[in-house]
Amino acid sequence: MPGERHAASTDDQYGTLLERKLRTPSFVIREGIMSKIAPSLRVKLWLLVALSFITACGIATAALWLNHEQLYRDKVKSLRLVVESAHSVAMALNADVERGVLTKEDAIRRFVAVAGTIRYDGQEYLFINDFDTRIVLNPVRPDLVGKETAGLKDANGRFFSREMSERARREGAGTLEYAWQKPNDPAFYQKLAYFKAIAPWNMYVGTGVFIDDMQTEFMNHLYWILMIVAIVALPALAMVALVGRSIGRSVLGLSSRMHDLAAGKLDTPVDGTARADEIGE
Q1: Global pTM?
Q2: How far is CA 188 from CA 32, 63, 103, 191, 217, in A?
Q3: CA nearest 210: which of 79, 110, 33, 81?
Q4: 3-class secondary structure for 241-262?
Q5: What is the end-to-end Cα distance of the chain in Å, rounded?
Q6: How far is CA 194 from CA 77, 84, 95, 187, in A?
Q7: Strand pairing report for 119-120 and 124-130
Q8: Dihedral-angle region of residue 18 (phi above 0 means left; psi in -120 to 50 means alpha; beta otherwise)
């Protein structure tokens, strides 16, 4: 029949053109280079999962770090409120000194007596030093009163008492971290102090708390978040492995079919046509 001969002629022409195209040096070279450079679909899927996992861990860690920073700011705020409350008492007594109601020595004596009785969070206390680093008040170590602490260093070699005195004189108030020991514990822990100058008396009042519990809590939360993200990612990894294996087999089958076409085998069946997904279409 003329129509059948025309269809057969068209198929032969198509097969010949396709064969020529697939066998051209440029196509063969390009195909060889891309097969060596381009990663497989399975690798791409694994990279996508890895990127998602890293992103999730990054977001969780950032959120946890922001929460830690907020806790730190809240801690500083609570210390500042305690110190400023004591500082207001000192300023009230100094006002009596300026009016001639009290002498400076009596005002300092009264302030030290009041500050020495203040406790918060159970056992935390206030301390008072002068600008020359001499201790005016230390409720837990009264034997240190009157001693100079300019040469006192923490576990990291930081002259924290000297630095605190200098900053109180220069800046008026601030925070300082240093490593110190807890009672009956030889280990050193990070401590956060807030201080504020009582300028008319050339001294400052401050308080400090250990913050190692915040750091420990942060690390514990970080470990839990990473563990949860890992557990959630395992099913995704298994799914990617299955999908990647299925797609990889289908693509390899199609690639084999293309090579058969290039070799002139136009009657070779195409695998995957029974699939209900895009590959089958």
Answers
A1: 0.64
A2: 63, 29, 41, 9, 18
A3: 79
A4: HHHHHHHHHHHHHHHHHHHHHH
A5: 32
A6: 9, 10, 24, 22
A7: antiparallel
A8: alpha
Query: Going by C-beta distance under 8 Å and a sequence separation of 6 or more, which residues neighbour residue 179?
Result: 154, 155, 156, 158, 188, 189, 190, 191
CB 102 within 8 Å of CB 95:
no
Instruction: Give the pair of three-digit tokens for residue 233.
Output: 């990612």
Other beta carbons less than 10 A from residue 151's beta carbon: 9
Strand partners, 249: none
> Which DSSP helix (H) or strand (E) runs through 9?
helix 2-23
Instruction: Give the pLDDT of residue 36.
Output: 46
φ, ψ for residue 140, nearest 5 deg: -90, -15
Question: Residue 109: helix, strand or coil by DSSP?
Answer: helix
Residue 20 has pLDDT above 90, yes or no: no
Neighbours of 203 (CB within 10 A): 23
Cα 90 from Cα 115, distance rounded (Å): 9
